[in-house]
Amino acid sequence: MSLEPSPDVTTTPGEAPPKRAVLLVNTKSRRGQEWFEQAKVVLGQKGIQLEAAKSFKTIDKLLAEAKTAIDRNVPLLIAGGGDGTFNALADLYVDHQTVMGVLPLGTGNSFARDLGIPADLETACDVIANGKVVHVDLGWANGTHFVNVATVGLTTKIAQGLTVPMKRKFGRFVYAIVLTQALKKIKPFRAKLTTEFGTHEFETLQVVVGNGRFHAGPFPLSPDATITEGRLSLYALRKASKLELLKMALLMPFGRQGSLAGVHQEECTRGRLETFPPMAVTVDGEVCPTTPLEFRIAPKALRVVAPQEFAG
Question: 62, 64, 269, 275: which one has the fewest Cβ atoms less than 10 Å from its Cβ?
Fold first, then answer.
């Protein structure tokens, strides 16, 4: 990679994506190594001029390389990985001119779904080359930006069971396997949730704070959630019952879990979650330090390439 800084190029929403780029791929993601080699060829065929292309087995090394590229104002930094990879990278892009390109190589790919980018190499590369630059929202949790969701409860048990070998072996079916295991381990906890609309206290098994439309792969956070509306979508089971959890799960494919009497749902811009006892927080699939959780929306904080038909 050249150490010469790139010119400071400012992009505006709707512009064509930059053609000069750096490609960084997390090969621990389910299809990382396979797509890395192919992506270099396909991106070049579509007119993307790669200044550098590197793959990484550890996220720390990928982040260090990404920071170097962004600090020197590389116009387009294409990242390949799953939701955890994009979450880890999000902070680096904020307040910089570098545009994010997305190659969805993970298992759930909720962030890519929000943008309308399918988990198909040819199509994803075509979006990067021929899409448009858009500004999308990020979430913020305890000092760090995130692209998709911050959750407490059942999801943390699931995240702890989602090992890389299992993701590669079972693909998307791994969620059903790990969910079954997590349901045996999860215990009720007390939650105190405060937003600009008030305070709610309840015993629960799950609390979700989401940015964008999708979470846990293909499941909508709510019927009308988007990644450009400047609001977080929040829902929580208000009863510590596995039967109520099952009812909620049956409505999640339609984003209608909030229609249940036993589910609290709202849209907000900021809030605080306390749990008793303190609980680990899962942010975009990665298990983080414990509650309390301070959260808020960061409107239009990320520049990213989306398909031409993307409307938010």
Answer: 64
For the ranges 1-5, 145-149, 239-243, the lowest mean pLDDT is seen at 1-5
d(CA 38, CA 36): 6
- Angle between the 83-93 and 59-71 helix axes, to the nearest 10 degrees? 30
171-176 — which CB contacts under 8 Å span 24+ positions?
171/30, 171/107, 172/107, 172/108, 172/217, 174/107, 175/107, 175/108, 175/216, 175/217
Distance CA 125, CA 122 (A): 5
220 shares a domain with 77: no
pLDDT surpassing 50 at residue 289: yes
Cα separation, 41 vs 140, in Å, equals 35
- What integer pLDDT is reported at residue 160 of this predicted model? 63
Q: Does any domain span residue 7?
A: no
The amino acid at residue 282 is T
Q: Note whether 83 and 34 are same-domain residues.
A: yes
Cα 1 to the center of its chain, rounded Å: 28
Rounded CA separation 209/297 (Å): 10
Closest CA to 307 of 120, 161, 147: 120
Note whether 60 and 31 are within 8 A (CB).
no
- How many domains are there within the chain? 2
286 and 149 in a single domain? The answer is: yes
Judgement on whether residues 210 and 80 belong to the same structural domain of the protein? no
What is the domain range of residue 213?
A: 144-300
Q: What's the mean per-residue pLDDT of the chain?
A: 87
